[in-house]
Amino acid sequence: MDFALSEEQEMFRGYLRKYLDDAGQTKVAREFIKGEMHALKNSLAGLAELGCTGINISERYGGLGLGALDLVPVFEEIGRALLPGVYLETMALVVPLLEKYGSEEQKEKYLSEIASGSKNVTLAWAEPRKSYNPDEIACFAREEEGALVIDGMKSLVPDGELADTYLLLVRTSEGTGGDGLSLVLIDGTDDIEMRTQKCVDETKHLAEMTFREVKVSKRQLLGSINHGWSILQEGLLYLNAALSSIMVGGMEKIVEMSTEYAKIREQFGQPIGRFQAIKHRIVDMKLELETARSLSYYANWSLESEEKDRKAAIFSARAFTTEAYIRVASHNIQIHGGIGFTEEMDCQLYLKRARYFENYLGSTSHYNEQIALAMGW
Amino acid sequence: MDFTITKREEDFRQELRAWLEENLPDGWLEGNRELPKEKDKYSEFLRNWQNTLYEGGWTAIAWPKKYGGRDATLMEEIIYHQEMVRVQAPPLVNYIGIHMVGPTLIQNGTEEQKEQYIKKILTGEQVWCQGYSEPNAGSDLAAIQSSAVRDGDRWILNGQKVWTSFGHLADRCFLLARTSHNSEKKHKGITAFLLDMNQSGVETKPIVQMDGRQEFNEVYLTDAVAYDSEIVGDVDEGWRVMIALMLHERTGIGAEMFTLEKQFNDMVEMAKEFRVNDKPLLKDPFVRQKMADFYARSRGSLLNYYRNLTNTLKRGKPGPESSIDKLLVSELTKEMAGFIMSIQGHNGVLWKEDAPVDTYWQDNFLGSFGQTIGGGTSEVQRNTIGERVLGLPKDMGR
Ligand SMILES: Cc1cc2nc3c(=O)[nH]c(=O)nc-3n(C[C@H](O)[C@H](O)[C@H](O)COP(=O)(O)OP(=O)(O)OC[C@H]3O[C@@H](n4cnc5c(N)ncnc54)[C@H](O)[C@@H]3O)c2cc1C
């Protein structure tokens, strides 16, 4: 038994960390908040150069042909630096789905451009004031002469403005419980109206998209028509495993911040880390981090291993880590005292990111129920 | 990352399984797991079980072959614990002898000591206990006051020990006593004795635990006698020996992890069968949510243990992270046991033969408090992790 990332994976992490540290860690996110995209563009280009955009893409399309576990260091480091963008959606949802269900034409068109870092894809699922329940998908595509004509709205699209292409969940026929839904790859065009939505996590630019008679070729369907829901479910396994890694990266940074601060900040003539109220809280944060990391490693491992507890492993990583991230991010602010409440410190950025992920593509209670179902309860 | 186990390890598991099926006490596998109530019968039963293990070559598997072990690898030890938990094997009455005292003697003992004790530890002929804690020395173990004073070739021991597990069944005690009061540091001046429990100067009084059992004891030393030959290591250097002894306990947390895993699975079974308002408990949305959360946390703890184990295998020795495992598993066990009692509703307070499902749950709940206290309290574990894993400043007064 060997429950650790390989030496190569850890070495790669080392390069990435150095690269993102040199870029100023959360400085990129802070520039983004101010509306300056330059630093982000540079960092994303740098990650592409390091090969991050090709890791899980087949060699035929210019990728490295590696697996989900090889993405773990990248996701952890991105989570640590709070890097904005749609790397998660592109690499952990769209790539595996294209690899599994994409037509040859789609693979050629998208995978090589993703691998080279010149294309980003995001997910357009939710609709204004609606839940993630499939019955509530109203955005409709009707068939017309080999094309699909789309009408409707999408909301909360992660970084809609940064993406070049959208994986759209649309209704293609009546049905309940996911029947009659399809996934379509839509390249950004002027036909799509886009409005940026304000997000509590300002490192995220969400978008509301309006489709009025937007026409796309049927060849853009991912998988067969009316079967998009089950394909999306498979994609969500990849996405949630990766999301857990992003959150672990954030949690790791938080525990480090708290520990460092507790060593240097003195009150009553001694470092506050000597007070057990502080020390023990940081230890509890560490326990949450280590548990989350173990769950997320195993989740990413199980993706490609066809283990029978694959779903339970991934959903439990997602559910536990989401809650734990919120807890540690909140404690971190408390441990920093007054300065922790300021805009200047990074503490707040992590808390906001944690709350962003809390209900991202499903709530904790939703995922707990998925665990229960996966266990056959 | 690779979770597969080798062919050799799988063979080991099968060999042990087959042996257990042959050799567990009659009716055990069918669920008849009553242990005798009366002390002597209880002692005899457990000693017999240990001797059966010995004869099959299944005690002290991690010990060197030369001393009657199997040179088992860490993974084999893990499998061993898994299998013992799986069949809910009878408790190992000489746990302390096998996992702590024996290995310490093999490493630090004199030839005479090895000659005299090792074999008897294996067979269960000599059961051991640990005499550390005293009324005024619990978490602060170096505060012990029990004294040993030299008198010719003998040492005269006086004082009181407390919470001595298995003390009422034990023949020998690995005991710490103060032999010098003049040291600058209070953990200097302590000596480790291999005390004979069967003498008039040693009196054992069982303490009734909150779960109704009597497994730990008060031990009174009144001019008890020990000889030079019963000292491990050097006089005044017992602290070092004791720390080394604790390191020998390399997989004990694993046994608790697998027990937690088993309890989780048993909880699911209970929640399928136990009905409230004519509906299985497991269908209750609140129960499902909580159980899913427990699934994540108990899996997480076990996986975390595997991850630390991987480190241990790579480094060749355990690190302070084992405190993380101890803290996670004991706290989670306690929380889960409390949850199970609470979902049994108002009937959950019924105990023993009146328990709504099985008194196992009520017993587990009560027993779980021992886990967050024994072997170092959760607070002390947090100090260890904070200081030795995270490098935070040391607690005042230590
Ligand atoms: C089931 C069981 C079996 C045991 N078996 C044995 C045995 O075989 N042999 C043996 O020698 N002992 C044994 N013990 C004793 C055990 O090791 C002690 O109970 C334990 O170390 C705590 O000591 P104490 O009971 O004196 O509590 P105290 O040390 O008095 O602690 C009381 C409270 O104060 C807290 N506290 C103490 N110091 C600190 C600190 N520095 N920082 C923060 N909080 C602190 C503790 O966490 C606890 O909450 C056993 C105990 C149990 C419960």
Automatic annotation (TrEMBL), chain A:
Xref: InterPro entries: Acyl-CoA_Oxase/DH_mid-dom_sf, AcylCo_DH-like_C, AcylCo_DH/oxidase_C, AcylCoA_DH/ox_N, AcylCoA_DH/ox_N_sf, AcylCoA_DH/oxidase_NM_dom_sf
Keyword list, A-Z: FAD, Flavoprotein, Oxidoreductase
Family according to the record: Belongs to the acyl-CoA dehydrogenase family.
Source species, domain of life: Bacteria
Provenance organism: Virgibacillus necropolis
Domain called Acyl-CoA dehydrogenase/oxidase C-terminal: residue spans: 226-372
Record CDD domains: ACAD
SUPFAM superfamilies named among the record's database cross-references: Acyl-CoA dehydrogenase C-terminal domain-like (SSF47203), Acyl-CoA dehydrogenase NM domain-like (SSF56645)
Domain Acyl-CoA dehydrogenase/oxidase N-terminal: residue ranges: 6-117
Cofactors demanded by this protein: FAD
Protein name: Acyl-CoA dehydrogenase
GO function terms (MF aspect): acyl-CoA dehydrogenase activity; flavin adenine dinucleotide binding
UniProt cross-references to Gene3D superfamilies, sorted A to Z: Acyl-CoA dehydrogenase/oxidase, N-terminal domain (1.10.540.10), Butyryl-CoA Dehydrogenase, subunit A, domain 2 (2.40.110.10), Butyryl-CoA Dehydrogenase, subunit A, domain 3 (1.20.140.10)
Automatic annotation (TrEMBL), chain B:
Name the record gives this protein: Acyl-CoA dehydrogenase
Entry similarity comment: Belongs to the acyl-CoA dehydrogenase family.
Record-linked InterPro entries: Acyl-CoA_Oxase/DH_mid-dom, Acyl-CoA_Oxase/DH_mid-dom_sf, AcylCo_DH-like_C, AcylCo_DH/oxidase_C, AcylCoA_DH/ox_N, AcylCoA_DH/ox_N_sf, AcylCoA_DH/oxidase_NM_dom_sf, Mycobact_Acyl-CoA_DH
Cited SUPFAM superfamilies: Acyl-CoA dehydrogenase C-terminal domain-like, Acyl-CoA dehydrogenase NM domain-like
Span of domain Acyl-CoA dehydrogenase/oxidase C-terminal: 236-390
Record keywords: FAD, Flavoprotein, Oxidoreductase
Coiled-coil stretches: none
First and last residue of the signal peptide: none
Cofactor(s) required, per the database record: FAD
All residue ranges annotated as the Acyl-CoA dehydrogenase/oxidase N-terminal domain in the record: 6-125
GO molecular function annotations of the record: flavin adenine dinucleotide binding; oxidoreductase activity, acting on the CH-CH group of donors
Keyword Transferase: no
GO cellular component: plasma membrane
Limits of the Acyl-CoA oxidase/dehydrogenase middle domain: 129-222
